[in-house]
Amino acid sequence: MVSMGHEMAAGMAAPTGEAARPGFAVGAPGGSVREFPAVWAVLEQVADPEIPVLGIVDLGIVRHVRQGGDGVLHVGLTPTYSGCPATEAIRASVRSALDTAGFADAVIEEVLSPPWSSDWLSARGRQRLLQFGIAPPTHTVGSVRGLWRAAATVACPRCGSGNTERISEFGSTPCKAHHRCRACGEPFDAFKCI
Amino acid sequence: MKAALTAIAAAGASAGPQRQAHIECLLRLGDTSLVLGQRLGEWIGHAPALEEDLGLANLGLDLIGQARLLLSYAGELEGQGRDEDSLAFLRDAPQFRNLTLAEQPNGDFGHTIVRQWLIDGWQLQLYDALQGSSDARLGAIAAKALKETRYHYRFSRGWLVRLGDGTAESQRRMQAAIDGLWRFTAEFFTADESERLMAQAGVMPQLPPLANNWLAQAEADLEEATLGHPPAVPYPWQGKQGVHSEHLGHLLAHMQHLPRTYPGAKW
């Protein structure tokens, strides 16, 4: 089961003081209320093209929905990795979802700062990854130092054993690494902590 | 300063040499990522193991993503309607501003790893410092790229140590790669007029202090890998100014062939 320890909560709250961080509000009781719930509801339905069980809101890449001075709605998206080929597909999916739902005037903008972190995956997102057979991030990055930390034990998403090994730091998509379970013998993907 | 630079960029107002230097610095970063990314792509289907094939391809993908961000920005700043694609595909070798090291051929896996480890180390220093750039957009790109570069460095440094402190044969090959490539590092932190101008404006960091940090880290890595480096030599390569080794032209011929032969072609 995915547990949300103190460390994780602290790590998620850390990056810059932007209210209503999407990945944070989901499943966090008492989390700040979002503006434009109808737009968020539309965005909740947009799935990551490479990990279809995961919605883009749960992935933490929807940075804001807000009204500009001109009265136009702005939807801010951030890429997970600079070169992630899914970025453009996601943008197109968001565009079409917004158009269909009657928000054709909404503007989609790219947000680079602060850079995306696997810390922003929501609790629900982590759960879904696990159910899909992908080990969710094992630790928060939070601070810069976290990136240098030795890899924590990654539990096998199939049998739960901690007796696993990393085959490659890179996997089938930029956001995943490749592991193998010594207990059940199955290979599996693990979400990179970045 | 930040507001002033943004105003310059937005209005496209000519700040003469200042803006030219700004574009130069963006191209150096962007072209190095692009050319190295292209080199790594040559490994796809050829790496010694599937895992490393994936690893090198992933590194290349990140680098090309970084190049897109940097080249798009350079094109906007230039204000002549060139986008990332026209900069990548429609310039000739003398217009490229990448480090000469980035264009060096792949060689064997160890050679590729040494080249990667050297450039990862250079990028780590630059991107880390650039997070505090007076150019907020460049700072944001650097902060994003830094995270990816740390991951790359862990990979290249890991292989440097494993192969350096490995068998007699792997050590011999790693040492040969370092002996062959070390000379190109002289270009890393040698600042020219553009970089000095941009350092004064707070857009770029001062390069000499970064050189010391980089060298200290590189020597620590080499010691762990039971490898050494040759003495520094004066260098005739000035890729950052557009004076390249003969390898870049071949790389570009391959990379640019399709968009030049079929202008405007789409998938």
Taking all residues together, what is the mean pLDDT of chain A?
81
**Class of chain B in CATH?**
Mainly Alpha
Gap from first CA to last CA of chain A: 21 Å
Major sheet of chain A, described briefly?
4 strands, mixed
CATH architecture of the largest domain in chain A, by name, is 2-Layer Sandwich
| Strand neighbour order, sheet with most strands of chain A | 4-7-6-5
- Tally of separate helices of chain B: 10
Structurally, the number of domains of chain B stands at: 1
Helix content of chain B: 55-70%
Task: Describe the 3D structure.
The complex is a heterodimer of chains A (194) and B (267). Chain A is an alpha/beta fold and 194 residues long. Chain A folds into 2 domains: 2-120, Fe-S cluster assembly (FSCA) (GMP Synthetase, Chain A, domain 3, 2-Layer Sandwich); 133-191, no CATH class. Chain A has helices at 6-13, 22-25, 37-44, 56-59, 86-100, 123-132; strands at 62-67, 73-77, 107-110, 134-135, 164-168, 176-181, 187-191. In chain A, the strands form 2 sheets. In chain A, strands 4-7-6-5 form a 4-stranded mixed sheet. Chain A has a 3-stranded mixed sheet with strand order 1-2-3. In chain A, helix 5 links the parallel strand 2 and strand 3. The longest helix of chain A is centred in the middle third of the chain and has 15 residues, at 86-100. The two termini of chain A are 21 Å apart. Chain B has 267 residues and is mostly helical. Chain B has one domain (2-261): Up-down Bundle (Ferritin). Helices cover 66% and strands 0% of the residues of chain B. Chain B is built from 10 helices and no strands. The radius of gyration of chain B is 18 Å and the shape is globular. Chain B starts with a helix and ends in a 6-residue tail after the last helix. Classes of the chains: A alpha/beta (194), B mainly alpha (267). Chain A binds chain B through residues 79, 81-85, 112-117, 147-148, 167-172, 174, 178, 192, 194, and chain B through 37, 51-52, 54-55, 57-66, 68-69, 136-137, 139-141, 143-145, 147-148, 150-151, 154-155, 158.
